[in-house]
User: Fold these one by one.
Assistant:
Number 1:
Amino acid sequence: MRLSDLPKGASAVVERVEDAHPNDPIAQRLRDLGFVTGENVRLVARGPIGKDPLLIQIGSTRFALRRSEAERVSVTVQEKVA
Amino acid sequence: MSAGTLRIALVGNPNCGKTALFNQLTGARQKVANYAGVTVERKEGRFTAPSGRVLQILDLPGTYSFDAVSPDEQITRNVLEGNYPGEEAPELIVCVADATNLRLHLRFVLEVKRLGRPVVLALNMMDTARRRGIHIDVEQLQQRLGLPVVETIAVKRGGARALIERVDSEVPVAAPAQPDDAESRAGLHVQVREILAATVNMPRQTAALDDALDRWALHPVFGLAILAVVMFMVFQAVYSFGKPMSDAIGDGFDWLGAHLAIWLPAGPIQGLLKDGICTGLGTVLGFLPEILVLFFFILTLEETGYLPRAAFLLDRMMLSVGLTGRSFIPLLSSFACAIPGIMGTRSIQDPRDRLTTILVAPLMTCSARLPVYALLIGAFIPMHRVMGIFNLQGLVLFALYVAGILGAMAVGWVIKRMRRDQSEHALLMELPSYRLPQPRDVVIGLYERGAIFLKRLTGVILALTVIMWAISTFPSAPAGATGPAIDYSIAGYLGRGLQYIFAPLGFNWQISLSLIPAFAARETAVAALATVYAVGGNAEAGGLAHALTANFSLPSALSLLVWFAFAPQCMSTLAVIRRETNSWRNVAISFSYMFVVAYAASLITYQVARFFL
């Protein structure tokens, strides 16, 4: 599943970040910011127009990612913890 | 330690409290400039340590990683490596990390360490970390990292004492430099995870307060409502505090000019001082209060962490016209005045997004257009009621504001299509924790903005004002001349020359002439028209309005209104574009596209209006 398809409030574990094209600087930056295999992410909020951008929490940090950026991240959804 | 100087560079992730720490260390003893050839800010400060040694601190731009994306990050890397031309390599690197966000920040610490230079780690925001029950085993962290670690609280008096003591003692031994390749970079995260597991105990990933506030601030409906209220208050403040002060400064210089006129004999000297220098200084300094009020709010909102939230809410909307969420605040500021708006684009890290924002900012209806609009609308548009509730004059004014916004959207869209670089530029924006703004940081920020404006622009604007004064004064009217003096000046000839260009827009030579001083400052168009129509210097607006209705037609008036909505004015704005983008090419682009748009729009307005009216 793509990070961009995650429902609001859901948690997931990052599988990997895929390059949209060779030497994709945005994918590289996502990896530098901590989107690496095994990290927990959570979709905190979505923008008011077209549900874009997405607010993703990874560790203690919240990043706003546009949908097209979040599409590069594949994740596995976790059972929702109450 | 012996006396001498030690060059220290301060680095860290954005939002690690690095600038607050820098302000705490150096206070007002800072020098702000740009790195040569680019518009990235270079901040340096110094203070004397207890040992008598002078510590010279360079505050480098916030960076997430050395895989540099933006010019800021490239500079940080080059300076740290000692590869930046004209910049000596620092003798000691102080790496600042937010103790509440070590998962993200430690990775950069490890990257800095690999440079093989002496590094001290400052664990900042230790007070917040303790409050949130985060426990950090500093001793263990120090061992695992192989770096000296000190705790700091940048926002508390004395909160940097441990850091000062550490940097004032011996410079730590550098770890051996390590190669920087993709494989070893990927390993950094693994290292961070191991270190965190061994040293940090976090009861909760985020601050409960942030979560609660964000539920409201980022809510699709309430979030936008809150943003609207915040923006409305900022705008009101600019008008109710900034504008009267600006007007008072303008009046003050007029008064000074009038008094000079009494003391000095009439002649070129008096004219130069009164109409050139006083008017020019009045114009320049008149911008200052509005700039300061606006930046007070921008800095405060930035400090609290709200600004990135506003950008989050509006990003999608701005993206569709080739901008970014971060463009919103500078563009909104441009409704007061494009100058602080353009200066405010410094908060946009991406150079392409920043340039687009700078190019469209002057299309926002700034407050200097209002006197011209008020005069023309008052003179030519009847006070009709439309559909019982709307006032026709108000509707025309509203239409002019909308024209500016639509124009900006169209231009943004066109730039998006035309630019060579069609690649995707990321938003990837961190939403930091909410914080109480620190008065010291806001005051220092305001001082810097004010100083930049005065130091860098006064000269240019003053020179241009004096040139304007000279061409509208010389040569003086011949003896026995009947028309106003400006008629015989270089500006007069230019005005008549310009008339050939502007005749298709319905501008007579008087209007064409008034466009020349309007280039210095839009509002002076009113005064210039008063002069050429010889209504006298202190003409009541009513008298001038009367003279205008007698001398030109409604289509001409509409055409002129449209011209003012889009025309490349004023020269202060062009000067600030030059300053902020460091390029005359951008000034030329901005001048010519606005000229073309204004000309085309006025031409259509005039020809259509003539056909129907």
Number 2:
Amino acid sequence: MAFIEAKNLTKIYTRGTEKIQALHKANFTVERGAIIAVTGASGSGKTTLVNVLGCLDNPTSGSLVIDGQTVFEDKVHLSESALTIVRRKIFGYVFQKFFLLPTLTVKENILLPAVFQPGLRANSARLTEVLQMLGLDKRANHLPGQLSGGEMQRTAIARALINNPSVLIADEPTGNLDSKRSEEIKNLLLELNQKQNLTIILVTHNPDLAKIGNQTLELKDGIIQ
Amino acid sequence: MNIFQVAYKNLLRRKTRTLFTIAGIMLSTWVLVTLLGFNKGYEQSLNENIEGMGFQIVLTAKGCPYEAATLMLKGGTGLRYMPEALVRDVAGRAEVASATDMLMHAEFDPNKGESGGTIVYLGIDPQTYPEMKPYLQFNQGEWFGADSAAEIVLGYEAAELEQREAGDVMLLPGSDQEFKVTGVLKRTGTQDDGMIFLPLKSAQQIFRKEGLLTMLGLRLKQDADQNIFEEDLYTLPDVQVVSMAQVKNTILSLVASAKIIVLSIAFIAFLIAMFGVLNTVLMSVFERFQEIGILKSIGALPRDVFQMILIETTLLCALGSLAGIIFAYLFSGFSEMVVRYLLPFAPNGSLIIIGWPTIIFAFVSITLVGVIGGVYPSLRAASIRPLDSIRSAE
Amino acid sequence: MRKIFGFLILFLLIGFGLAAVGCDLNDPDRDILRIGTYYTSLSPRITYKTEYLSLTKLGGEKTLRAVEERLGDKFSGLYETIDVPYTLYTLYQGEKIIGYVHGINQKGKYGGLQVFLAYDTRGVIKHFYYQKLTSRKAAELRSAEFAGQFAGLSLQDFLSYAVQTGSGGSAGVQAIQNPSPEDAADFLATLRAVKKNLILMDIFVFNKEGKELP
């Protein structure tokens, strides 16, 4: 059985009286340890797809099974709290904007998920491991304002990884970085995938970054091509 | 790291705003503590002042003014007298712990000022009067020796006007006899400051009021029922009973309306604190819309976010009210000066008393009110959906 | 912040500064109107300005010593102290200063005397009167004849007058008659008050720079 199995995932937004079909009957599976590149033009439904997939949003219809657990079944909507529990267990998120808390140090930002999850797996050994893995050990006590763009994105990735997620969802992770830093992040994602067997779902415009995907979902007007 | 530290560091992000919010809460608390302190202090001081008058009950002849100020306004007229015999009878009753006879006299002195002025004298019994007024202290000298000595004691202001010191002599208007000043009292802030005291017998003789008194001051025994005793006194003919308890009640009922205003202002201070907090926290929640969304995406439950924002609010309120209490305490002297300046009648003693109950009440209530103000923004924050916030960033 | 502190300190000073009492006119509007008749016989439209002065403010101890030396007597007692406030009334006719009124407290035999002098602009006494007086001979001392003897005199006349013995002074001073020769205490106290008043006015108004007198 596939790690993630999506059936007829559909998402319709209502904006005023207008209904926008952002995702239309998406069917796909993701194997554990895969890198899925989600590509497509702006407004094609990429972000909607990963938000539903990452349990940040409920689909309008369709079903989603992750690691054998049914997360959505037709028309059954999970509460905000229930979605949070699923997110905690399975996902780590990285966004185009880094969303680091400016008054917390790199170390504290990375440990932030632990604040909200009592009895978490994160401990000081895991922190050291993540810091080293992402080359942030010398920056641990710096504030975000003192970091470069690449370092900020690495901090955001470290924050996503601190809980040992099974799936990393990265939405345009290099969107705010120059080509050199983008390359760095690309290599880092590859390394994480290979060494930790981390499943990565990657939304990107960047064809070079998309190349690392061993499966590509190309979207056009909410439909997987 | 825990949620408390995250909340605390969030406050440090906008230091100026945090500081201003704390200052707002501080001001509200300052006002509240000062007003509550005033509420307590005024009543307490009034009680002490009335206690300090020495008498619980004063008997005067009917229609007779017993305040020196009233007497002066009336140009020294209007005094009436009670026969000593009647008074002896009252002073001898079982309920009376001590009694003191007094003869007040007002005399027109043509040489006081361009067109003359009224001087008020009080003939007192040197045996009983001083112990009823233990707060009267001497700047110089002491009370006169005998009941009929040609001696006087001057209140501070009377002595200053007459430039008299202990040992000097003085003339009383309408008399050729020289009186020796045996003592000058310290300033008391009461009508005693302007008074010229002389022995009762001498006063009766000089002012030709032998066998007459204007007032009898009474202090009752601890176990005596003041009400019953007063009721009994009312049956005496041509005698007016002035009960200090009544005077106090009259003043307190006058002050009661002022108290309502005071408490309304305190209530407004509460509202200001609450809406100030609501506004600030709501603004900071809106500002951190995306950030809160991210916190949720990394595992924060709605109740975690609610808790975090509420901790921020509580910290703001607690710090503000603590600062306000400290300010109120440090500046209570200054506030008292202002209150004294503004109030038409302010008793002596501390007008603003800030005790632990006031401090605890102000701290808890302002913090609580602030926290209530923080509930709505916290709920708003808790209901932020991560998706909306992340999308709004892109 | 400094301003606030200044304000607070000012408040404290006012609070504690009420120790000594000065000598004010009881009813300045009415009193000045009456005194005005000594300046001009035409219905006088006299206005006045009130000023509060004290030796503490005008040089402190040093000034006090100078006053005592010229007076030939020490300040003494509970009430004659360095911090006594003095009230100076400056009289105007229109914009023009026409004179001054100043009173002082003086200890008399039986009570306080308040001796007021009205001056012209050169420091010559125009009018003398007691605002308050307690004396066996109050009526005599208050008489117009007695008061009239001071008119026309100035500090020059009193410089050599010895306040303790009542001797010396110019011919004008020596000519002042005591209306009650059997009791000189209040008469002497009055002359001391007049001399003290003249010296203080010299410091306050006429010889502010403290020039040596000829």
